[in-house]
Amino acid sequence: MTTRRAALLALSALPAAVSGAPPDEIVAHLKAQADAWDRAILAKDRAAIEANMADDFRQIDGRGDVETKASFVDGLVSPDLHLDPYTVEEFDVRVYGDTALLSGRTRMTGRYRGQPFKTHYRYIDVYVKQGGAWKIVSVQISRMPD
User: Fold this and answer.
1) How many domains does the chain fold into?
2) Domain boundaries, position 84
3) Burial class (CB within 10 angstroms; exposed 0-12, middle 13-18, buried 19+) of 57
4) Among 24, 91, 112, 130, which is least packed by CB within 10 angstroms?
């Protein structure tokens, strides 16, 4: 099984596992879903990245610019961008009914158009349960000093 297919299967199976689940199970589900999304991003797996996102997704980046789902995904899978594996620090999940806030801090390194970069940022991802599935609807990042 390809990595892409495995990621898609993992993402598609998760919503069924949490319907009517207690809060701890919802938090564990969202953590697993966020981890799968990070793996899909590193693998540049467009289908798995998009499967986690609502159609009306928006990102506000560290400069205050707004990205749509299409522009966000295009940037991630661009051959100009290479991301090194990264970890999320201070990960936290808060659930409010059918809305969840996932936040943390990431130090990311890689290359863009052959030039190395490193960035340190804090983020918040907003997930909403739509049609029984949790989808990311918004991301906002704030750059932090190194």
Assistant:
1) 1
2) 3-143
3) buried
4) 24
Query: For residue 74, which amino acid is it?
Result: D
Which pLDDT band, with edges at 50, 70 and 90, does 146 fall under?
A: confident
pTM of the shown model: 0.82
Q: What are phi and psi of 112, to 5 degrees?
A: -125, 120
Q: Which tens digits make up the pLDDT trace of 76-128?
A: 999 999 999 999 999 999 999 999 999 999 999 999 999 999 999 999 999 99
Q: For residues 41 and 23, what is the distance between their CA atoms, to the nearest angstrom?
A: 27
H runs (alpha helix) in the chain = 3-17, 23-43, 46-51, 69-77
Tokens 């961008």 sit at which residue? 81
Q: Report which of 57, 39, 61 is spatially closest to residue 48, judged by C-alpha positions.
A: 39
CATH number at residue 76: 3.10.450.50
Distance, CA of 76 to CA of 67 (rounded, Å)? 12
What tokens were used for 125?
């991802």
